[in-house]
Amino acid sequence: MQKPFLVFGAPQIEQAEIDEVVDSLASGWLGTGPKVARFEHDFAVYKGIHEGQVAAVNSCTAALHVSMIASGIGPGDEVITTPMTFCATVNAIIHTGATPVLADVDPITMNIDPAQVEARITSRTRAILPVHFTGRPCDMDALMVIAQRYDLKVIEDCAHAIETEYHGHKAGTFGNFGCFSFYVTKNVVTGEGGMVIARDDHDIGRVKMLALHGMSRDAWRRFSDTGFKHYQVVECGFKYNMMDIQAAIGIHQLARVESNWIKRQAVWRRYNAAFEESPVSLPADPAPDTRHAYHLYSILIDEAKTGIGRDAFLDAMTARNIGVGVHYLSIPEHPFYQRTLGWQPEDYPNAMRIGRQTVSLPISAKLPDDDVGSVIEAVFSVLGKAGG
Ligand SMILES: *Cc1c(COP(=O)(O)O)cnc(C)c1O
């Protein structure tokens, strides 16, 4: 049996990150400073955009919220998103004062279905908020056509999708805004952290201002040595800026983003080969001319085929010391949304089924080959017990 417990989504922290954080602490510059600027620069280079198009913030939730505020979204507006996502996506919409509207996912890709999006557009719809779920790109061609036809903003939730590409373009560069997460379990980690990228420099200026109390842009440089500057509050903003301590970690994480992607791809392929003949459903292969970020490897446990229910499978894996995840119960399963928006899981049947059957297996770049073997053995051991 796997020993000790294999923690799901444990971050891969190396000496370079540790040294850089110590350097920040020793320098006394803890808040937003030169390392945030360097991380923004490096991220822009990685995405093939320029520095005026990026703004580091302290979470993806903050990135989504501030992008919507900068899009002019507020009370009376509707924003269409997917029921197969983390609650932060929907909560960020609610925090703008707008009303979230769900469009069910495609049963195979598990991404928002453009036909469902179009069916839910009303005169109040202002934006589409697609999530590149597990790192697989959404059907951006279709979504952008709809956005253009109805004059909607597009804000991409790229929390799983740093490395994702679609038809030669990088995730986050299709919409008005792309929002990224550097939470501990994500592909690039800063502890807590996020990034906004925008097509328009003007939009990033607004995001930076809103992310720091609504103080005029010069405020970002007001503690520099170029002379005292009074700041002016020009909007009621938020406290969403990233610290240098966070960026210190991110700079070195980002430098390894491609080598880690190759490692996760290898784990993904090993799982696919191992489970090909098993009764579990495997994630759909990446579509042609796209790049999957391989953030999550999620199988479906359909009790009719496997002889074991999803929740019993989760317990059995945990008992074998393998940490597993659920990404996610569909959003309408949660009581808050049922109570306040009247949502019911049955109204989004594809997301409901996926949410009730899905299990995420460990797929971190940190996973040694032996541990991948232990996960595979544990899956077969659990399925074998169920069958016999
Ligand atoms: C993690 C996640 C978020 C929130 O990211 P934070 O950086 O933790 O705020 C938003 N959307 C999705 C799809 C996520 O997985």
Give me some keywords for this one.
single chain; 388 residues; alpha/beta; Aspartate Aminotransferase, domain 2; Aspartate Aminotransferase, domain 1; 2 domains; three-stranded antiparallel β-sheet; binds pyridoxal-5'-phosphate
Please tell me about this protein's structure.
The structure is a single chain. The chain has 388 residues and is of the alpha/beta class. It folds into 2 domains: 15-255, Type I PLP-dependent aspartate aminotransferase-like (Major domain) (Aspartate Aminotransferase, domain 2), CATH 3.40.640; 257-387, Alpha-Beta Complex (Aspartate Aminotransferase, domain 1), CATH 3.90.1150. The protein is 40% helix and 12% strand. The strands form 3 sheets. It has a 7-stranded mixed beta sheet, with helices on both faces. Strand 2, helix 4 (87-95) and strand 3 (99-102) form a beta-alpha-beta unit. Helix 3 (60-70) packs parallel to helix 4 (87-95). The longest helix is centred in the last third of the chain and has 19 residues, at 257-275. It is globular, with a radius of gyration of 21 Å.
Summary?
The chain has about 400 residues and is of the alpha/beta class.
